[in-house]
Design brief:
Length: 225
């Protein structure tokens, strides 16, 4: 009987050690997913952003170098600094610490287009998590998009904290789900929700209020302080 109890105790001890090991491994994976991927993504996005700004200095007036991006998104309420914007919203692209504009299922308009919806996506956790604080955005807050020669200033007018990830109507050129009925110049931010899941989507809509030419010192518009 004593030997049997000893074997059981030994088995329990081994099982406990395995649980501890599994917990450590899981913890390391969480650290990798939620911290280290941010470090790597931010590093890569910063390098790409620097290349794009260098390209702006070497290309002619009005030219856009889309190889490294089309510009920078600034959302003071999210407090994420400038966010590089590039073409595409597939996982491989967004994992590089950027925001991407949609090409599918509904192609995004671009800020300089006469009308349409500039639709963007970014991760909410891991890989830069550029839209992590999207829940802080309120109606009336500014969203500013910076290109080589123009600041595009939008004003938030509607948020949708939860919708199906299959709801593509939020990307329509006229986002009627936001209450708009006529063509205009809109911007839409999309990301996963709740945090650390991808079950639903969080949506923010804004409308262009004005543009401002970039001066020689790249002085930010008043909305960016």
């Amino acid at each position: 009987m004593a030997r049997a109890r000893g074997r059981i105790a030994g088995a329990i001890s081994v099982f406990g050690e395995l649980l501890i090991t599994a917990g450590v491994v899981l913890g390391l994976f969480v650290v990798y997913s939620l911290w280290w991927t941010n470090v790597l993504a931010d590093r890569e996005a910063s390098a790409q952003g620097d290349r794009m700004r260098d390209g702006w200095q070497s290309t002619g007036p009005g030219e856009l170098d889309t190889k490294d991006g089309i510009g920078f998104l600034h959302v003071p309420a999210m407090d994420e600094g400038e966010v590089l914007v590039k073409k595409g919203t597939d996982t491989k692209a967004l994992n590089k610490g950027i925001a991407g504009y949609y090409t599918d299922p509904i192609a995004s308009a671009l800020p300089w287009d006469a009308e349409g919806n500039f639709t963007l996506a970014a991760h909410r956790d891991g890989h830069g998590a550029k839209f992590h604080n999207i829940h802080r955005i309120r109606n009336g807050d500014p969203i500013v998009f910076e290109t080589k020669d123009t600041w595009y200033v939008y004003k938030v007018y509607k948020t949708l904290p939860k919708t199906s990830k299959y709801n593509v109507d939020v990307l329509q050129p006229v986002p009627e789900e936001s209450g708009k009925k006529t063509p205009g110049r809109y911007i839409t931010l999309t990301t996963c929700t709740p945090v650390y899941t991808s079950d639903f989507r969080y949506i923010v809509w804004g409308e262009l209020t004005r543009t401002e030419k970039v001066d020689a010192k790249r002085t930010p518009p008043a909305e960016l302080g």
